[in-house]
Design a protein that fits this description.
The protein has about 350 residues and is mainly beta. It has helices spanning about 5, 35-40, 45-70, 100-105, and strands at about 85, 115, 115-125, 130-140, 150, 155-165, 170, 175, 180-185, 190-205, 210-220, 235-240, 240-245, 255-265, 280-285, 290-295, 305-310, 315-325, 325-335.
Length: about 350
């Protein structure tokens, strides 16, 4: 036993060892340190606690403000360029991809106005079979021409044109003038009513991105005999390539569709086109509701997978753009969704 315990006193820390000699004895195991002294940490501990507490408070405040402002950097890019890079990685898009599709799967392009933006044709007169030009503007809620767009899959504007019987599909990329007027050469090969879809991501003044698809009808006067929709099939042939897919689209359910391209000379090497190994557009028969779906970033064993959510039952026409040896081709399929 130590000499301290033998005298009936407990050990006293150095800082309080100057207690008067006449201090009364206390029972074993009871400290003579006053309560207010033993409860006060040293200064270095206090400083450390204050620093840690300040950092935690700053992180919490930053997170809260970010939530109130609607997210992080992708919600506000803070750039003044008219055409700017997009936050999505190659192989993904602003509309639908992966597990988020179940929420985002709504057919677009059914109206000239949506989300505060309006598609306004400037020149849209066409003669069937003759080269023409489509010019249009995208205007905001104040009727001002929009001039700031994000670059999505290498382009700030994707224009899809198809006749209302779902024939004559074209995927075009207009160019924009300084006043916000877009223009693109366009030939409508046959008479009839055509649908043009402007697929873009607009940048508001505060940098927020809004992905929108707007649609407008174009007319090539003349006799119009609509073609019947081809029967449903899981394979198609285009320019000597056989394109097939596996998977069964379902209404309201996200499912994978895996496409494979073959030829008589073996399996060709797919190349990136507009930043991805394929682009898939689906149009719904009847109202021509529009879905633009992008693939997984990389092919697997030469096959490209798209995650597709059909919003409603019905018949759809699928258009797959793919590139081999520098040439872009389009394979078309009819799909029945239950």
């Amino acid at each position: 036993m130590s000499s301290t315990a033998a005298t009936g006193r407990a050990a006293v820390p150095d800082q309080v060892s100057a207690a008067p000699d006449h201090a009364p004895e206390v029972p074993d195991g009871v400290s003579t340190v006053p309560e207010q002294v033993s409860a006060v940490p040293d200064r270095s501990t206090l400083r450390l606690a204050l620093v840690v507490g300040g950092l935690v408070l700053a992180v919490l405040l930053g997170f809260g403000l970010g939530r109130l402002n609607g997210g992080g950097p992708s919600a506000a890019l803070g750039t003044d360029s008219a055409l700017t890079g997009h936050s999505h990685a190659p192989g993904t898009g602003a509309h639908e991809h992966g597990a988020d599709q179940a929420v985002a799967a709504q057919a677009g392009g059914l109206s000239v106005s949506s989300a505060g933006y309006t598609l306004t044709p400037v020149a849209a007169a066409f003669t069937a079979g003759r080269p023409g030009e489509l010019r249009f503007q995208v205007r905001d809620a104040q009727r001002r021409p929009v001039t700031r767009f994000a670059v999505v899959h290498d382009k700030p504007m994707h224009l899809i044109v198809v006749r209302r019987d779902l024939t004559g599909y074209q995927h075009l990329h207009p160019t924009m003038a300084a006043d916000g007027t877009w223009s693109v050469p366009l030939t409508l090969p046959q008479a009839g009513v055509w649908r043009a879809y402007a697929d873009f991501t607009a940048l508001a003044d505060d940098g927020r991105q809004t992905a929108v698809t707007l649609g407008v009808d174009l007319t090539a006067p003349g006799g119009y005999q609509p073609s019947p929709l081809p029967a449903a099939a899981s394979s198609a042939t285009v320019d000597g390539f056989t394109v097939s897919y596996q998977g069964t689209p379902q209404a309201g359910v996200t499912v994978p569709l895996t496409f494979r391209v073959d030829s008589a000379g073996g399996r060709p090497v797919l190349e990136r086109y507009l930043g991805a190994y394929g682009h898939l557009v689906a149009l719904r028969e009847g109202d021509l509701g529009y879905l633009h779906v992008h693939p997984e970033p990389q092919p697997v064993d030469g096959a490209v997978t798209f995650w597709v959510t059909a919003p409603d039952p019905g018949r759809y026409r699928l258009y797959l753009d793919f590139q081999v040896a520098g040439v872009v081709r389009t394979a078309e399929f009819t799909v029945t969704v239950a």
